[in-house]
Amino acid sequence: MTGQDPSPRRAPPSRSRMSDVARLADVSPATVSRALRQPQMVSASVRARIAEAIERLSYRPNLMAGALASARSATVAVIIPSLINSFFAATVDALEEGLRGSGLQLMIGNSRYSPETEEQLVLSFLAWSPAAIVLTGRRHTKRTVKALLDSALPVFEMWELSDHPIDEIIGFSQSAIGAAVVRHFAERGARRLGFVGAMMDLDYRAADRRAGFVEAAVQAGFAPPAEAWIEGPASASAGASAFGRLLDGAPEVDAVFFTNDALALGGLFEAQRRELATPQRIRLCGFGDLDFASASEPPLTTVRPPRQQIGAKIAELLRARMAGAEAVGGSHDLGFELAVRGTT
User: Fold this and answer.
1) What domains sit in the chain, N to C, each tagged with a CATH number?
2) Per-residue pLDDT tens for 113-172?
3) Where is the HTH lacI-type domain (predicted)?
4) How far apart are CA 308 and CA 316, in angstroms?
């Protein structure tokens, strides 16, 4: 079960120790250590008591204990939903560049768009006492949120906005993107809108862009957009197939928003196969401003998110926090740009 918009107000708690777990479970600290490191050496009943004590105390074993004099390591844990998506790769690269010379190093985790996987990564990373944690998005499991609030670490959520971040959130409004695309299509004389998306059940940022697009379309007097969704990851071939299905079901569509540039490129290829002139007959807009968008023929209109700026801003905020600055909290809206090109 996931939750969102938790309260950002946190008081630094005293960290539970192994001796506290041992006292509550009525065993020795050595037995707790053995249960954590060699559980097969401890009876099931004793392991159960220790597990219950750990849960009650929110105990997180510090794997760096004894190795460092500092309570925090020099690592920054960063969790992104995809290692192959260039959106997030650009942000991580800018974050790494922004921390150059600070002594901080990144430790990367891949959640694969799963809140449960993110939770396990957060709990694992906390055991290494990182200097800070960076998460993608604002929606996390309740256990993830509790663990982060209890940790009193600097926490930076990114690629979205929220009125109630865990600590600080840096990004832009996903739903506002959908609304901006509707306005652009209307200005270009579009009469019937369409939408193509991928992984809509997992990628809720794409789902938010769709929601903004559909809501703005109806408010502007358009009929509800025709839609085609893809279950798997975005690709040009998947975009061509979905765009073809959309046109087969709603041939009157003359403007389509794709939640990813790869999908939009596939749509452009399919339009050319069907001899649909772009933008005279069909208008296409993607998201991401990937490298190929400006090199396609015609060049692809797309939404440009602040990929590098997000990473750079997190680095700036983290450096300030490490230097002793007070946490300001709240959302940092970096906005987005509509790159208008040949497909509209």
Assistant:
1) 70-172+309-334 (3.40.50.2300), 174-304 (3.40.50.2300)
2) 999 999 999 999 998 889 999 999 999 999 999 999 999 899 999 999 999 999 999 999
3) 16-70
4) 12
pLDDT tens, residue by residue, 233-249? 889 999 999 999 999 99
